[in-house]
Amino acid sequence: MRKKLISKTYLKGVNEYELKIYFNLEDCYISVKKILDITEPFILSSGLCVIDKNYYIMEVIPKNENYSMRVFFNNKKERLEYYFDVSLENGLDEESKIPYYDDLYLDVTKTRDNVEVLDEDELKEALDNNKISMVDFELANKVKDTLLEQINNKSNKYMNMDLEQYLW
């Protein structure tokens, strides 16, 4: 498991970003990063560019769910991709007071009409190598199934938020 802080990007090729907005809402934490400098644009296999100079990455960490949601916006503030990291736990780091999530390896993405599950092999490998328990493995799969259902029926609360209000 990897503890990930909301203030970081965890993305290769992002050299500089501005953490402009940081919100502690009633049921989630939100951070927005504006990409200032990159090694090269990040383009998905579909040809969709999701990271480039002056693009935004918003991270939403629900306080009472087992996932975090990253939303990629272009320089016109249009939503490009949703990237969900299934997590064991979300919270506020005691030392830094920065929100975090414990990444449980499994991911779900949505771009336009394409939904994918990623890193099922990493989740299984983590189980096989005793990095996670069977309970954690089952939780990850349950959360994945719930996310897929919510994405397909457009009922995910955080995807339906007015996120553009947090961009500058």
Attribute tags:
single chain, 168 residues, eight-stranded antiparallel β-sheet, 2 helices, 17% helix, 46% strand, globular
Residue share in helices? 10-25%
Biggest β-sheet strands, sense, barrel? 8 strands, antiparallel
Which structural class best describes the helix and strand composition? alpha+beta
Low-confidence stretches: none
- By oligomeric state, this entry counts as single chain
Gyration radius (Cα, Å) is 15 Å
The count of strands amounts to 10
Strand content: over 45%
Overall body shape: globular
Mean pLDDT: 94
List the helices and strands and how they pair.
Layout: E1 2-5, E2 14-24, E3 28-38, E4 42-43, E5 49-51, E6 56-62, E7 67-73, E8 79-92, E9 99-111, E10 114-118, H1 120-128, H2 134-152
Antiparallel strand pairs: 1-9, 2-3, 3-6, 4-5, 6-7, 7-8, 8-9, 9-10
Written description of the protein model:
The chain is α+β, with helices and mostly antiparallel strands. The protein has helices at residues 120-128, 134-152, and strands spanning 2-5, 14-24, 28-38, 42-43, 49-51, 56-62, 67-73, 79-92, 99-111, 114-118. Strands 1, 2, 3, 6, 7, 8, 9 and 10 form an 8-stranded antiparallel sheet that branches. It starts with a strand and ends in a 16-residue tail after the last helix.
